[in-house]
Amino acid sequence: MKWEAQPGPQMAFVDSPVFEVIYGGARGGGKTDAALGDFAIHAAKCGGAARGLLVRRTRTALEPTIERARQIYHPEEAVWVESRSCFTWPSGAVLYFRFLDRDADADLYQGHSYTRVYVEELTQFPDPRAVDKLKATLRSPHGAPCGFRATCNPGGVGHNWVKARYIDAGPNTVVEESFTDPFTGRKLTLSRVFIPAKLADNPRLLANDPDYVARLQLSGSKELVRAWLEGDWNVIHGAFFDKWSERNIITPFSAPSFWLRFRSFDWGFAAPFSCGWWAVPSDPWPTANGVIPRGAMIRYREWYGQGARAGEGLRLTAEEVGAGIAEREAGEKIAFGVADPSIFRQDGGPSIGERLRRMGLYWRPGDNTRVGKAGALSGWDQMRARIAGGEEGPMLYVFDTCRDFIRTVPVLQHDPERLEDLDTNAEDHIADETRYACLSRPLPAPPPPEPPERPEWDWDRLRRDDPHENRWNWKTA
């Protein structure tokens, strides 16, 4: 073969026997070459049994990948067939190039058989459903080894689920997941691994284009350049809530019972629902993290209704959700609830809001203004203002136990078509529910009145001045 993997992560990617191999991190790390080279090796080994599918979100994004594939596959005598959008080898091996814009597009591949599925820029997919459907096409009637391969960079609408599924386990750590075949009862084990890529792992690029790093450093902020060069998955660039910081996260404490407490709610059945509980301090409140200003919103509890897979809901009925909310806030005095206005819609029967009200959970419709128009109050602007705060500190805090808020909200990105709004393809359920809370105008409750001071009586003087001294005998009895 003319193409050879470079020593290091690229070699580890093409040699890995693991079923799912994710190669990601820095820009310029040789990820596209690794995917294309992997199939060239697979085709050389398996001949006509090798059938591959490479997908990206858009056709335009595929064009540079196809051009690079021409350079790699031409020496292998592979031919590009424009009408079928694929490369074919003399042996009969074939690699198709397709785009996968929507979840429904994956249904078109039902009944297909592939031995390799490649997904480029995995974080561009808002959730894993479409990608997981493609894994069902991995089968070979000729016994060729099957595998799923993907490349990605930090950021994008799918940053959260990719990081949780593949990155957080650690680099080069093989994670095994067991399943039971429903037809045969046989136990199956599939494994996955994340191989980090850095620019330094691609010496060919650096040798052929020594100014590449300098151009990257001129292309964005320090955080973005750091993510591009180091593949740092903890860098949040282009965040919609760009003032979010560690000072918004506080250690849990027991809030006084007289503080205003309320809840906010975003409904979901097939998609996740979110319920958050908030407390509003009546006076400045000192904590180990600093002083919380009067009137700030403190998220002290949450319930995020997500299923086993990212983007999937628990599929609970309104009554089941209501029972869960009531159980979590038992014994608390909740002043009010604000909810997604859609729960009050009636389609021939009682609305979700009415069904929850029957369980003693009362709500008022949340202000659903995302972006202000003609003087309308903007929900996102209110949320940003509270996160940023002022000289006294932020006006929105989150207990560090509210992990789903911390996981999803800070990494939300701008909508590329409407920059004043956030990208609704991302995991925005908690952000929506928090927006309802910010627009509910929660006012701090007044502190309880101080109890009157008990007078200190001078019993000796009273006894001395009172001619009827016997009346005081009860005190010494």
Task: Describe the structure in your own words.
There is one protein chain. The chain is an alpha/beta fold. The protein is built from 15 helices and 20 strands. It has helices at 9-15, 31-46, 59-73, 129-135, 159-167, 203-208, 212-217, 222-230, 318-328, 352-357, 379-388, 403-408, 429-438, 459-465, 473-476, and strands spanning 20-25, 51-56, 79-81, 86-88, 94-99, 116-119, 147-152, 175-180, 187-197, 249-250, 260-266, 273-280, 285-287, 290-292, 297-305, 336-339, 364-365, 396-399, 414-415, 418-422. Strands 3-4-5-2-6-7-1-9-8 form a nine-stranded mixed β-sheet, with helices on both faces. Strands 10-18-15-12-11-16-17 form a seven-stranded mixed β-sheet. Strand 3 and strand 4 (86-88) form a beta hairpin. Helix 2 (31-46) crosses helix 3 (59-73) and helix 11 crosses helix 13 (429-438). The model has no long low-confidence stretch (mean pLDDT 86).
Count of helical stretches:
15
Beta strands, count: 20
Range of helix content: 25-40%
Task: Report the biggest beta sheet as strand number plus sense, adding barrel if it closes.
Answer: 9 strands, mixed
The quaternary state of the protein chains shown equals single chain
Low-pLDDT segments: none
Radius of gyration: 30 Å
Please report which band the strand proportion falls in: under 5%, 5-15%, 15-25%, 25-35%, 35-45% or over 45%.
15-25%
Given the helix and strand composition, which structural class is it? alpha/beta
The pLDDT mean sits at 86
Structural shape: elongated
Alpha carbon gap, first and last residue: 109 Å
Strand order of the main beta sheet, please? 3-4-5-2-6-7-1-9-8
